[in-house]
């Protein structure tokens, strides 16, 4: 899955920057068979962190054999941290343009209502059922030495609005690669390459990949719900 692609010089060669999407989910409770959804109403409630996160981590030192290696690797890590912070600021700017919470909320509400057979409403107070999507974390993951990713993680719960009982829940996550996957030699740490490519990702680039990741994360939520409904409706 290609989100955006452009070419930059890296280590004397042109490297294609292709964002590859990875999605995962883990289902939990499923009491959908106990409830009637036809002619009922559904609203989506989104909870989101105030700003994107940056994860840089502590890196593997197994290839450090000399003092020079240590200095180069330390510089690589510092460079990645510095460029990661700048990239997070650009991601924050992109998020104000995209408003991923509103984007995900509308898309999730429309699809979930179709699968359940409910009619969508925008006000949670007037809904028979609530689909709560807690966007627990999103941001840039630059912990590895080979690539950096934009990621989202969410916890999803379908609730009976009358008594608050949990009908169904799932944990979902999405990752979109921001930098080329590279393997560098002992004296050219991949962190330097990752830092260099991160510095080229613009606000517009972040806006595009954030839109796509928001849509796909929403889709994995509703696909999980659809699969759970198949399980109970086929029995």
Task: Describe the fold and architecture.
The protein has 235 residues and is α/β, with parallel strands linked by helices. It is built from four helices and nine strands; from the N terminus they run βββββααββββαα. Strands 3, 4, 5, 6, 7, 8 and 9 form a seven-stranded mixed sheet that branches. A hairpin with a 2-residue loop joins β1 (5-10) and β2 (13-18). The longest helix is centred in the middle third of the chain and has 32 residues, at 67-98. The two termini are 35 Å apart. 36% of the residues are buried.
Overview in brief:
The chain is of the alpha/beta class and 235 residues long. 38% of the residues lie in helices and 30% in strands. Helix 1 packs parallel to helix 3 (190-198) and helix 1 crosses helix 4.
Helical fraction equals 25-40%
- Structural class assignment: alpha/beta
| Sheet of most strands | 7 strands, mixed
Give, in order, the helices and strands: EEEEEHHEEEEHH
Percent strand equals: 25-35%
The gross shape turns out to be: elongated
Distance between the termini: 35 Å
In total, the number of strands is 9
Task: Please compute the radius of gyration using only Cα atoms.
Answer: 21 Å
Oligomer: single chain
* Average of pLDDT: 74
Q: What is the count of DSSP helices, taking H or I runs of 4+ residues?
A: 4
């Amino acid at each position: 899955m290609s989100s955006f692609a452009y070419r930059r010089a890296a280590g004397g060669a042109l490297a294609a920057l292709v964002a590859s999407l990875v999605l995962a989910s883990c289902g939990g409770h499923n009491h959908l068979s106990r409830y009637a959804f036809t002619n009922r109403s559904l609203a989506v409630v989104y909870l989101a962190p105030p700003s994107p996160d940056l994860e840089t981590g502590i890196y593997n030192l197994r290839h450090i054999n000399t003092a020079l290696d240590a200095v180069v690797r330390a510089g690589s890590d510092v460079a990645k941290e510095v460029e990661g912070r700048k990239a997070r600021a650009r991601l924050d700017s992109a998020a104000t343009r995209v408003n991923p919470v509103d984007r995900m909320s509308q898309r999730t509400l429309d699809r979930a209502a179709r699968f359940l057979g409910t009619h969508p409403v925008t006000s949670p107070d007037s809904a028979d059922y609530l689909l709560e999507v807690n966007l627990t974390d999103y941001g840039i993951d630059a912990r590895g030495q080979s690539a950096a990713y934009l990621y989202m993680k969410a916890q999803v719960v379908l609730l009976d609005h009358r008594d608050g009982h949990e009908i169904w829940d799932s944990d979902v996550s999405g990752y979109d690669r921001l930098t080329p996957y590279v393997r560098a030699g002992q004296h050219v740490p991949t962190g330097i390459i990752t830092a260099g490519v991160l510095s080229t990702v613009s606000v517009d680039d972040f806006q595009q990949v954030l839109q796509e990741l928001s849509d796909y994360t929403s889709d994995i939520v509703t696909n999980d719900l659809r699969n759970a409904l198949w399980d109970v409706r086929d029995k």
